[in-house]
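Researcher: Re-running this chain for the archive, since the previous output was lost when a drive failed. Same request as before.
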Amino acid sequence: MFQTTHHQPTDDKTTMENVNRIVAEGIAAVEAAQDFNALEQIKARYLGKTGGLTGLLKTLGQMSPEERKTIGAHINECKNQFQTAFNNKRDALNEAKLQAQLAAEALDITLPGRAQENGGLHPVTLTLQRVVELFHGMGFEVADGPEIEDDFHNFQALNIPANHPARAMQDTFYVENGDVLRTHTSPIQIRYMLDKKEPPIRIIAPGRVYRVDSDATHSPMFHQAEGLWVEEGVTFADLKVVFTDFIRRFFERDDLQVRFRPSFFPFTEPSAEIDIMGENGKWLEVGGCGMVHPNVLKNVNIDPEKYTGFAFGIGLDRFAMLRYNVNDLRLFFDNDLSVLSQFSRNKRKTWKEAISDLIKQLPTEFTLDSLYKYKQDLSELFLRNEHIEEKIRQTVQILEKNGDIERLDRGYYRKIRV
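Model: Regenerated structure tokens:
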């Protein structure tokens, strides 16, 4: 027999007062924050997964429909107030940081202009290219798919039941008609297998994915790469060989220790977490994997009695953090050129660095005329300025004043000092 769910009555006034109290405390804490780290911690305390306002939202399921509508609307309004206060404080901190930077930096209008610097690829893009390059060498091809997915491709076909926590609104972004922003790139595998019809299948599926999460190591939008190999006779041993070879090539360490730790995923059986040994002697999780579940193969019309396969998934953002020794994921997406330019493959030297290097190459005895053999390099640096020697005089003065070339033999530049 079906059972009727009874909701315990709540005190609307008490709940409203509790919401108002929490948001007032949160806004006061935001306004008192002195730096960005404190501001992010406050946001997590109130809007994070275990935050105060988030916790109140989770209690709505215990209320009657009328209470849920009234109190839920009030909680959302308070969340918007908190978010507005957070945005205003963040803008104020950014403005204060800019003003302090402008006040601290002196501007010398007599300095030569800067040449246009070459751009570079984003560190996550560089990491993606590296991953794809390595798997191309193993015979994998790249597959792609839409970022807005339906329930079948994102959940049902992957053996994720209707009551699985991944379907909760606290973890998944829902859009119209029950569609979602894909929570992993596994739907690409489903679409590819349905389209391919028959194995062998060997693909790598990179792309953006979305989950309701945000902190130093998680972002609402992040990048994944998932691999799939379906063929007759594929075993877990093949999975271990392929991934171990990949991870050692990626980090360029033939002695890198890799372990496969038993775990659970609804779309693979058996399943494992993949760990590598860090430089600190501790195991570090880098991905998940397993043998493709027979139900998944059936859902894409592949006979699990004839074919087997393995799948794995890695976070490209996390791999980029490990590759470039970055400890805060948000640095990749703040669009701070002073940070991102450090990862460029084609990073050009500053004009001071280039001039200093040129001076080191000059013979001990020389005249200004001899500098013209470097005209090609210098003209690129100074936008084809014909008065190169004057620029060098100015530059040497600056370098000497800043202590950048004190260690050099003074004979290297004595004849071009003013």
